[in-house]
Design goal:
The chain is mainly β. It has no helices and 11 strands. Strands 2-3-4-9 form a 4-stranded antiparallel beta sheet, with no helix packed on it. The protein has a 4-stranded antiparallel beta sheet with strand order 5-6-7-8, with no helix packed on it. A 3-stranded antiparallel beta sheet has the order 1-11-10, with no helix packed on it.
């Protein structure tokens, strides 16, 4: 979802058509692995790392407005990274995202 409009630096990481609804697209922001997750309501950007055990989330699945870890089944809200189901108790890192003329851009500043 768009946010952090006060950011002065944005990096294009993909095109909207690259991420189907219900899909996950791994990208990088500098050297940082990030996942673009698209739901029926929008596109979200989260770290490709589960805070529970450090496993990559890229093989996870979208369930409604959440991302499910493929290893232990932890579930995270895409809008803010909050854990919705254990075993994870910490948030997954989220990133500022905007879409400009079909280009998905991530904020260059610190994570959201």
């Amino acid at each position: 979802m768009p946010g952090g409009e006060e950011e002065t630096c944005w990096r294009e990481v993909a095109r909207l058509e690259d991420v189907p609804i219900g899909g996950i697209l791994p990208v990088t922001l500098g050297d940082t692995p990030v996942l673009l997750c698209r739901t029926a309501t929008g596109v979200f950007a989260v770290a490709d790392r589960c805070p529970h055990a450090g496993w990559p989330l890229r093989e996870g699945r979208i369930r409604g407005e959440s991302l499910v870890c493929p290893v232990h089944g932890a579930r995270f809200a895409l809008v803010n990274g909050a854990p919705l189901a254990g075993p994870a108790q910490g948030k997954v890192v989220t990133y500022r995202l905007r879409i400009e003329q079909g280009a998905i851009q991530l904020g260059c500043g610190p994570p959201a």
